[in-house]
TrEMBL record:
Name the record gives this protein: Helix-turn-helix transcriptional regulator
Any coiled-coil regions, as ranges: none
Native source species: Streptomyces racemochromogenes
High-level lineage: Bacteria, Bacillati, Actinomycetota, Actinomycetes, Kitasatosporales
Gene3D superfamilies: lambda repressor-like DNA-binding domains
Domain HTH cro/C1-type, residue spans: 41-75, 82-137
Length: 230
């Protein structure tokens, strides 16, 4: 189970830069947080945020974005988890759950565990709402290991048998998946044939090496073919 973080990945240099661009001192920011949002934040705390010594909570981050006239996403480092992507879009769990079509409590459990269990329609809605690339979707939903296994099997055996399992796993049209899996399978087979021919009498060693190299990089090749490397 993935750990649950109390604070989003705060981008301290961005906060400092945005404040300076507005001609504000840390005291002005603290006053705005108190006057506009009722948050008792001191100038020293604002400075600690900007120096990377502390990070604002989710509520403080949203309020800080309001005071600095920016979006919450501009105050975040590159998001990695589902929760971080949601925060970067400035969405609360209830709003995202409604857009995706799941109960808020069920969504929160999936967000906290790092394991997405939505159906195909809900997965597509999640990727759309958070503007996730295909690679990001796999990362935030905890499906990388499962995806790697399916792709390896599709490349080395009968790829047609893996269209349906992958369609359930990824928000990708079935017809597109079919084209990509066929390409992966053909590339793998062509590489194996070429290596056997080149290796002459030592084909078994070279075949194993070539196969492992291709399969180790198969996810990256999949992102490239599927247009989801993002």
């Amino acid at each position: 189970m993935c750990p649950v973080h109390s604070s989003p990945p705060f981008n301290a240099p961005a906060a400092r830069r945005l404040r300076a661009a507005l001609g504000m001192a840390p005291g002005h920011v603290a006053y705005g947080l108190r006057a506009q949002y009722g948050l008792l934040v001191t100038p020293e705390t604002v400075m600690a945020w900007e120096q990377g010594e502390r990070s604002p909570s989710s509520a403080e981050l949203t309020a800080l974005a309001g005071v600095l006239w920016c979006s919450p996403g501009e105050l975040l480092a590159e998001p990695v988890t589902l929760r971080e992507h949601r925060l970067a879009r400035g969405m609360d769990p209830e709003d995202l759950a409604r857009r995706v079509g799941v109960e808020p409590n069920a969504y929160l459990k999936m967000e906290e565990s790092g394991r997405w269990k939505g159906n195909e329609r809900q997965s597509a809605a999640l990727a759309s709402a958070l503007k996730l690339s295909l690679a990001q979707f796999v990362g935030v939903t905890g499906k990388q290991e499962e995806l790697d296994g399916l792709l390896r099997s599709a490349a080395t055996t009968r790829w047609q048998a893996y269209v349906k399992p992958l369609a359930k796993l990824l928000p990708v049209p079935k017809a597109h998946l079919e084209r990509v899996l066929e390409l992966l399978h053909n590339e793998y087979q062509q590489r194996m044939v070429a290596t056997v021919s080149w290796g002459g009498g030592e084909s078994s060693t070279w075949t194993g090496d070539a196969g492992r190299e291709y399969l180790d990089a198969i996810s990256e090749r999949f992102w490239s073919l599927a247009g989801g490397a993002g």
